[in-house]
Amino acid sequence: MDQQDTQQAAAAASSAFDPDAFLVVPARTFEDLRIGEVFRAPSRTLTDAHAAAFQTVSADNHPVHYDAEWARRHGHSAPVVHGLQVLAFTAPGATLFPHFIGEVFISFLELSCTFLAEVHSGDTLYPALTVSGLEPQGDNGVVVTAATIHNQRGELVLSGQHKYLLRRQ
């Protein structure tokens, strides 16, 4: 293939390109989801830099998060990563879930969580969202997910729930 043929092929491919059809995963609907489906986020090892960045953004300057001596004097083995930072790892956008439901997503309705164990710099977190409920409501439906985060020792450090509102077919 010479340069002219290559340019013609590229032009033909470009004219056939449809940005709306450029999906990371095939789009699904509320009706396509199944209880028990799991949407995992990539594992992430937290560092002191992550904790410092979150402290800056959140303005949470409690010494339990940055003062090792203060933390030890108060019963902690090391400074504790901010709970809201840990919770943020359950964000649906950290998984492929929003790519699957992007065309029918209306809103993130609510979330709740329980912090079950401390997280420290150096811990690796494994977040997941598991579909635990599908509640049709007229033209819409609520997807309930169990939000979990385990650490590198297999300990459940966060357990919670998210609810999302989706359009139905």
TrEMBL record:
Stated family: Belongs to the enoyl-CoA hydratase/isomerase family.
Q: What is this protein called?
A: MaoC family dehydratase
Identify the residues that the record assigns to the MaoC-like domain, covering every copy: 35-150
Which InterPro entries does the record match to this protein? HotDog_dom_sf (IPR029069), MaoC-like_dom (IPR002539), MCH/BMMD (IPR052342)
Top-level taxonomic group: Bacteria
